[in-house]
Automatic annotation (TrEMBL):
Pfam families: Glyco_transf_8. The chain crosses the membrane at residues 37-61. It is an enzyme of class 2 (transferase). GO terms for cellular component: Golgi membrane. This is Hexosyltransferase. It comes from Lupinus luteus (European yellow lupine).
Length: 533
């Protein structure tokens, strides 16, 4: 605040830069005001103005809207200067008190709840109530909407689970048509590979990929993307393993749509002499034990206390009960050394991956005596996808799990794995896998719920060599917020999760990375109306 006296002492100017009092002039008439009176006036103003300034600042800070005029400040400052009490604070305190009472109280049974906010406003206009009744109405409406939202979320998760577990009509049509083609078309039954190329199936100078699936369309994408992304496609040998019902259709597809210059072999589980009940007794029990089948194929809601679980936990439980987890086709990877006794090193691929870069360098990675080259999933930019430890897969309240495993141990990913089969054959990985499967069956599946990875995490313990995460990007089947730039850079992208790219529930912005390898001009694809999204 500044005081300016004119040279003649006939006027005094009071100026301020605080935004509230910009300019005030006092003109002095020498004949009517003495210097003593003027001096006293200045002293009084100098004493009062700081208090006015402080009150103005407080009012502005406390207010919702800033005052920009003296009229506004007068209305705001008046009650304070005159000693009147502002009732707004008391009203807020009283309202909080009522809300606390309503929070702990019971909603009256005869209270009629409006269906919408508009109905609430109309109802309150037509039927004036006290504030407490109004608060009960608001609470009742919010609790009702929360219940409906929760029920809707669980219904959505159930529908998504059924969609993920089912076979799309187009893919089923494609399998049936190709199976029919196998029986009626000699070209669809021709030997794969041709006799002159059979020796290459066990030639370790080639790059051998193993793919286990009953999804013909998915298999075609994996093979096509691998061949098109390779710098040495003539060195690629694919060993496609499928089940008995899909074998004819799978064979027809690759016989009629060769992946030249790569070599493709199609074999059904029934064609492996080694896969007998004596060699896989635990997996035979998995497929045939009635209690296990009911767990995976039965009613997933019956007996479940939905009020005691979150939608996210419920979604995890549903995914863990996918019927694929009791299929021998899904466990076949644990028998690779026995099924391919002449091979030394292979790359195993899941059917929900897409290959975007040349994978030849994988055969140059030195695993340092380990069996399994895999990407670890306990560290990475995506905290949801890349934050998996053993505690995420196992029940550590079970005494055997607590005794033998560390909850903080880093997990690794299935889907794209380099297997050193020579090193594997020197271990007891298969026996360990069977042993823990048997224990989990005895415990009524209380040690873990989710499929093939948990027993593999135990069986391969101490046999895993971490590889660079850029080789294998996960989560495209459940992480909607996947970074697109990271997807473009990854060598292998993995649609693990329920939202597969061939399903309607797949994420639209991630689907093109998969559909670009689907041959939509193929007659079987067109006739079964498998349309590009």
């Amino acid at each position: 605040m500044q005081l300016h006296f004119s040279p003649s002492m006939r006027s005094i100017t009071i100026s301020s830069t605080n935004g509230f009092i910009d300019l005030m002039k006092i003109k002095v008439a020498a004949r009517h005001i003495s210097y003593r009176t003027l001096f006293h006036t200045i002293l009084i103003l100098a004493f009062l103005l700081p208090f006015v300034f402080i009150l103005t600042a407080l009012v502005t800070l406390e207010g919702v809207n800033k005052c920009s005029s003296f009229d506004c400040l007068g209305r705001r400052l008046g009650p304070k200067l005159l000693g009147r009490v502002d009732d707004s604070g008391r009203l807020v305190r009283d309202f909080y008190k009522i809300l606390n009472e309503v929070k702990t109280g019971e909603i009256p049974a005869d209270l009629k709840l409006p269906e919408s906010f508009e109905q609430l406003v109309v109802y309150m206009k037509d039927n004036p109530h006290d504030v407490k009744t109004f608060a009960f109405m608001l609470r009742g409406m919010m609790e009702k909407f929360e219940r409906e939202l929760r029920e809707s979320k669980f219904s959505e998760l159930m529908n998504k689970h059924f969609a993920a577990s089912s076979v799309p009509k187009g893919i089923h049509c494609m399998s049936l048509r190709l199976t029919d083609e196998y029986s009626s078309n000699a070209h669809a039954r021709k030997q794969l590979p041709p006799p002159e190329l059979l020796p290459l199936l066990s030639d370790n100078s080639h790059h051998h990929f193993i793919l286990s699936t009953d999804n013909i369309l998915a298999a075609s994408v994996v093979v096509t993307s691998t061949v098109q992304s390779s710098l040495k496609p003539e060195k690629i040998v694919f060993h496609v393993i499928t089940d008995k019902k899909t074998y004819a259709g799978m064979h027809s597809w690759f016989a009629l749509n060769p992946a030249n210059p790569a070599i493709v072999e199609v074999k059904g589980i029934h064609q492996f002499d080694w896969l007998t009940r004596e060699n896989v007794p635990v997996l035979d029990a998995l497929e045939n034990e009635s209690g296990i089948r009911n767990y995976y194929h039965g009613n997933h809601v019956a007996g479940a206390n939905l009020s005691d679980t979150s939608p996210r936990k419920f979604a995890s439980k549903l995914q863990a009960r996918s019927p694929k987890y009791i299929s021998l086709l899904n466990h076949i990877r644990i028998y690779i050394p026995e099924l391919f006794p002449n091979l030394d090193k292979v790359v195993f691929l899941d059917d929900d991956v897409v290959i975007q870069h040349d994978l030849s360098p994988l055969w140059e990675i030195h695993l340092e005596g380990k069996v399994n080259g895999a990407v670890e999933t306990c560290r990475g930019e995506d905290e949801w996808v890349m934050s998996k430890h053993f505690r995420n897969y196992f029940n550590f309240s079970h005494h055997l799990i607590a005794k033998h495993l560390d909850p903080d141990e880093c997990a690794w990913a299935y889907g794209m794995n380099i297997f050193d089969l020579r090193a594997w054959r020197k271990t007891n990985i298969r026996e360990t896998y069977h042993s823990w499967l048997r224990e989990n069956l005895k415990s009524n599946l209380t040690m873990w719920k989710l499929g093939t990875l948990p027993p593999a995490l135990i069986a391969f313990k101490g046999h895993v060599h971490p590889i660079d995460p850029s080789w294998h990007m996960l989560g495209l089947g459940y992480q909607n917020n996947t970074n697109i730039e990271s997807v473009k850079k990854a060598a292998v992208i993995h649609y693990n999760g329920q939202s597969k790219p061939w399903l309607q529930i797949g994420f639209e912005h991630l689907r093109p990375f998969w559909t670009k390898y689907v041959n939509y001009s193929n007659d079987f694809v067109k006739n079964c109306h498998i349309l590009e999204s």
